[in-house]
Amino acid sequence: MAILQAKMDAAEAMIAAVTPQSGGAWAGEARKRALDSLRKMGAPHRRDEYWRYTNPADFLNADAPQAPVMELDEGMPFAMLDRVRLVFVDGVFDPAQSDEPAVDGVEIEPITTAMAKDIHWVSSIYGVLESSGQSPVSRPLAALNTAQAQQGFAIRVTGKAAKAISMVYLRSSETADAMVHHVVKLEPGADLTLTENGPAAARANMVLEVEVADNASFHHIRTQGRDHLRRSATHMFTRLGKESSFKSFTLTMNGILTRNEAVIEFTGDDAHATVAGACAGDGNFLHDDTVFVTHDAQNCESRQVFKKVLRNGATGVFQGKILVKPDAQKTDGYQLSQALLLDDNSNFLAKPELEIYADDVACSHGSTCGEIDADAMFYLTSRGVPHAQAQDMLTLAFLNQAIEEVESDDIAEDIRARLAAWMARRAG
Amino acid sequence: MLSIKNLQVSLQDEDKQILKGLDLEIGAGEVHAIMGPNGSGKSTMSYVLSGKDGYKVTGGTATLDGVDLLDMEPEERAAAGLFLAFQYPVEIPGVGNMTFLRTAVNAQRKARGEEELSAGDFLKLVRSKAKSLKIDADMLKRPVNVGFSGGEKKRNEILQMAMLEPKMCILDETDSGLDVDAMKLVAEGVNALRSEGRSFLVITHYQRLLDHIKPDVVHIMANGRIIKSGGPELALEVENNGYADILAEVA
Ligand SMILES: Nc1ncnc2c1ncn2[C@@H]1O[C@H](COP(=O)(O)OP(=O)(O)O)[C@@H](O)[C@H]1O
Ligand SMILES: [Mg+2]
Question: Which of A373, A383, A409 to mutate to test the interface with B (most CBs of B within 10 A)?
Fold first, then answer.
């Protein structure tokens, strides 16, 4: 079992590369549990079922490969929101650049502060949602994050948050690693918008655990930063109570390697979850969306909507699974993953899966890969729209189906403008 | 205005000739109608003139005011003043009708070295033209042709024509599938655009449309060429007797 040995050796190397962390009693246990499970599952390997399309090697090297820091030539996203900004530089919280972390209806604390306490609400979520998301598919990078993370916030929302919370990730080092772990708990009926933007670090390992209690709503919008050579592995774990709602949208432009995993579990009836993404890649670019939705309650609705535009040899990966447990009747599961290839060199690799054990469900999935529609192209150009501009219009139109999942019209419009600018930079 | 000489066209991927020596001269301000059996090559002619891929010109010429059309990209032909109202207008999900119209109008203005229309001026213009075609605000907001009825699609073609103010307008079976009222709207839209400097080529099967848009010349096309030309009475003859007599006559 050479592969197994390799996975174990690599896991030990991952563990050796990080400094052991302690904390209060519960935190120490959570970290130890994560380390133990990482030792058992081993590091991700090319031959693992969900790493066939994406080579994990660059997440495992001891040092982060160098990635120049991009000077942004456009304003930061989410500026239109009434919000509190929490700024990180190379994955380290920078209070000087941040707003006062105070929002009515919300408790905000650094996770390390929470971990130093012997009794804390965070103990019921930190590493708990992550570890339940390790089966049936293991997610070693998330386990490593739980064992090690020193950065991130514990956010507890008790009512409708008066402001949005924005995590702003800035970079200064060309070779920094970042490991950030946020924990969000929405109490019954609570409502929060959380945004994240920026590339976090040359190489980032990000975990977000979100517990959405009955009747609560969580809105998450993320833009991952345009630095070309940055690498990011992100995990989102969420557990949804009765009549709750979870909506997450991610915009990705550039980045040499991105793996975004979302693990969603319905535990209360009549809840809704959307996880959506639009991505645009040019050249040396691999973007991987790996999603696992478990329906373990009745009458819940899940939507996955992923759109990718790929050119100059860029690669898109989608691995999405809907698992419907025997008692999850009246499940409505929807999964759409589409790629638009702007040339013959680009690739889309998709693994859409449905596993259904209940009989009264409506699940659909569609995965397609195509080029610009020639008839639409001719129609536009015959009206005088230049070829390049027509291509951009049709490309944006293609992405728009994912962008429409964003509830806020202002944010959706901002995202469209950023994608249009991305295309304009490639024109001529 | 439009001058087509001995135009021969085959399919790009198949060894099949569709236009077999087509001749057509349309002077400035004239309205010509083309009638002819299905499959005779009328749509192919309009596609080739406007620059659609998939066809191979193997002989002949087509010029617009002396400029070689066949050498240009579709957008250049549009900027030069050519417009085709499609027999089957294309649906484009995700592109708003209004955005599409404004982009097209301004792209053409830019290509001709004219100033782009301001958002306000554009809006005023489009609203007034849409109103006379009974195109409501909702249709302008929706994605291009998506969910439009057959008649709405055709009226949308005429709206584009009215906004772009081309000098050579080709209408490919714009009347097909329209009820009497919709056809009247379309005809009024066309008539409103008639002027000394603007010519029309109206492809149709029906006399009905030609009652409203009075053609100067009527051509009969069959098997890839014009087989007979005449005055408006030729359309009446087709209406009454079909194509059989004319086909037999030239055979
Ligand atoms: N892209 C194409 N592929 C195959 N056949 C085509 C294509 N375009 C036109 N044709 C054929 O060319 C002939 C003329 O078609 P068309 O120009 O649509 O005629 P009309 O508009 O007069 O009805 C028909 O036999 C049609 O099937
Ligand atoms: Mg036709």
Answer: A383
Domain presence at residue A420: no
CA separation for the pair A245, A302 (Å, rounded): 10
pLDDT digits over A318-328, tens only? 999 999 999 99
Q: Indicate the pTM of the whole model.
A: 0.92
| pLDDT class of B177 with cuts at 50, 70, 90 | confident
Is A55 within a domain? yes
Option in A384, A396, A400 nearest B75 (CB): A384
Compute, in angstroms, the gap from residue B46 CA to the centroid of ligand 2.
9
Q: In what order do the strands lie in the sheet with A177-186?
A: A106-110, A153-157, A177-186, A203-212, A231-240, A257-266, A286-295, A315-324, A347-356
User: Which tokens is B73 given?
Assistant: 């990209």
pLDDT the model gives residue A23: 66
The one-letter amino acid code at A133 reads: G
Q: How far, in Å, CA of A339 to CA of A107, rounded? A: 40
Report residues near ion ligand 2: CB below 5 Å. B 42-43, 87
Q: Which of B86, B93, B80, B87 is nearest to B164 (CA)?
A: B80
Average pLDDT over residues B5-27: 95
Cβ(A290)–Cβ(A259) below 8 Å: yes
Q: What residues flank ligand 1, with Cβ below 6 Å?
A: B 11, 18, 36, 38-44, 54
- What domains can you pick out in chain B, each with its CATH number? 1-73+169-179+201-251 (3.40.50.300), 90-166 (no CATH)
How many degrees, rounded to 5, is the angle at CA A129 between CA A181 and CA A226?
A: 40
Residue A28 lies in a domain: yes
Q: Which of A372, A373, A382, A389 to mutate against chain B (most B CBs within 10 Å)?
A: A382
For chain A, what is the domain count?
1
Whether A333 is covered by a domain: the verdict is yes
Domain that holds residue A11: 2-373
